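Appendix B. Extra example for self-study. Work through it before the problem class; the solution is given directly after the inputs so you can check yourself.
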Amino acid sequence: MLKQIEGSAAVAQAVALCRPEVVCAYPITPQTHIVEGVGELVKSGELENCEYINVESEFAALSVAIGASAAGARAYTATASQGLLFMAEAVYNASGLGLPIVMTLGNRAIGAPINIWNDHTDAMSMKDAGWIQLFAETNQEAADLHIQAFRLAEELSCPVMVCMDGFILTHAYERVDIPTQEEVDAFLPGYEPVQVLDPADPYSIGAMVGPEAFTEVRYLAHRKQMQALDLIPQIGTIFKDVFGRESGGLLHSYRTEGADTIFVAMGSVNGTIKEVVDAEREAGKSVGSVSICSFRPFPLEELKSALKGAKRVVVVEKSLAPGLGGVLASNVRMALREVPLPVQTVIAGLGGRAITMKGISEVLHAAENGSLSDVTFLGLEQAVIDREIARSAEMRHAGPTAEGILKAIQNRPAAERSKAS
Amino acid sequence: MSEDTALQRVKFYQTGTHTVGNRLMDEDKRSVQSSIDRSNAITSGHRACQGCGEALGARFALDAAMRSCDGNMVAVNATGCLEVFTTPYPETSWQIPWVHSLFGNAPAVATGVAAAMRRKGRAQTKVIAQGGDGGTTDIGFGCLSGMFERNDDVLYICYDNQAYMNTGVQRSSATPPTARTATTPAVGEAPGNVFGTGKNLPLIAMAHNIPYVATATVADLHDLETKVTRAMNMSGSRYIHVLVTCPLGWGSATNHTILLARLAVESGLFPLFEAEDGAVVRTQKIRKKVPVEDYLKLQKRFAHLFKKDREDVDRIAAIQKMADANIDRFNLLGERSAP
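Solution. Structure tokens for the complete assembly:
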């Protein structure tokens, strides 16, 4: 049914349609609306047969989900940012134990300085935790990915993280087609665990493993992700058969045919990029874009063929690996390791800074005329940077802090301040 | 008890009259271990140290728990000695469904298991979580408090050996004052662990007003079994804090495991009590009060208190004062109440 609905509410309804049996809730912006939504559905009786557990931390939230999943229940939780980092130990543990937990990540920056707005630093921090990571481009896709995530997780016995941009998607009201219970039931069978805590057939789950077998365990985790590369498109096809629309998959290509420049990005920024692609195509530029939906596993081969024929690749990413550059870009370079194609990265939208069509267009033009550097920070206020570099050069060498920077600026004589600005 | 469950017949290890098995006592007074049909949570062949109090405590606690629910239970384990010595892959000593996730999350994992059991229509399956004092009083404390606050249907058992023994005897918040550990060495002006620190988790558990809190030791395994059985027949959050001797960490003789646990009780340093809904309902009276020196002298972790040239009279007296305060607080020398 088509609804004008907030992204978080759409996800809450989609999750409820998947009939989770244990839902763990701990608040963190911008994820809160999701667990509030599920909570209301449980309290009102609309979502039956579900234990809704209010816990004392994100670490406990995922830990409760681990226990519930190991005991044979379909388990769900949601988090963001610092919350994901607080549960980091359990994130690795859930995948190591092969538990098909589904978790929404309302993507948000990580402090310090504290910042509640959107970027992808949180998801990138857990990119190698053994979870499947799917990125939603729209709220429709966010809702649909959750339904696919449970099936994917349970077929592979592997946890899945559905990433959706904080505020930009979670708090946006968009038109979303919320499926019916019948449709979801037809698509998603009940959870049948491969290992379960059952007194009639006792298992020891989570044994200690030494050097003689640990490599094999890790190899199998890698293999599982490789299997997901096949399974994700298959599940996407089945999803289309049942629900009548395409959603998910490994990646989406947009007007890449004959494109000299191809943008690569994840999440909601693809909406902006597509608008730029349309406008620039109108103006005669050969440009296209690729939206990565499955960041883990990373679709190396599919991306390589999607970028075939391009003269340059520009990665637009909302995360930064300090000391290296782009996180997504280094993955894209891996896909193009045998192809002599320049990959440049634009670090954009950190901590919620707006990514405008104008900004993307400028990047495109710079890429075309060869003036784009390998790592570009979109909309960087160079004056602020220069001031801080000059200031810190005069100080003793200690770690600069946000408070220290502000204090130094405020303490400067008024005349000097006005001169600087 | 059926053959296809985790329950199995096991051989006797104990001989004698009033040793741990109590085989010569009246049938209703015998411990779980004295029955040929006893349940068997942890099978033999695990890798605990000789004289390990935790192996003994866990075995008696879980066997008693199994008997009270006919083996219909799940155990959750925190990281620690118990987890390591029972499950070196590809072996496991656990005859019951058992899960280990992390060091600090056993209470939360148990919450999840209990929730799943309710939703799966298997609410009669009992859930036990267990951890050492590090996993319970320190790193898992937040999760444990959360579990108590929600009154989740879990019995949590803490095996308290008073330090992080699995990682090489470092101080925990359950380490007693003056004890020598790897991180509180017996050097300087006040050697060993400092006074005035630490947590009394049974009392903190009581402050959550959970249905049941008890303390026990491996010196009185029948008492431990009784308390486990009592807790198993209740619902909501229940907490049992078991003092378990660690010969390695305490620097004690392996044949002193039971004796030391008994001296901890008889000196007043480890009071045995039960509390329901936040109030003490039963205490175990001290049979024959002993001075704290009797307990301390048998352990190398307190050896610096008893140097030949300079016995640390002040700090021994301070420890005695702690024991006496416990005796007063719980009325451990008073009239015996009805059992």
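Self-check: The radius of gyration of chain A is 23 Å. If your reasoning did not lead you there, revisit section 3.
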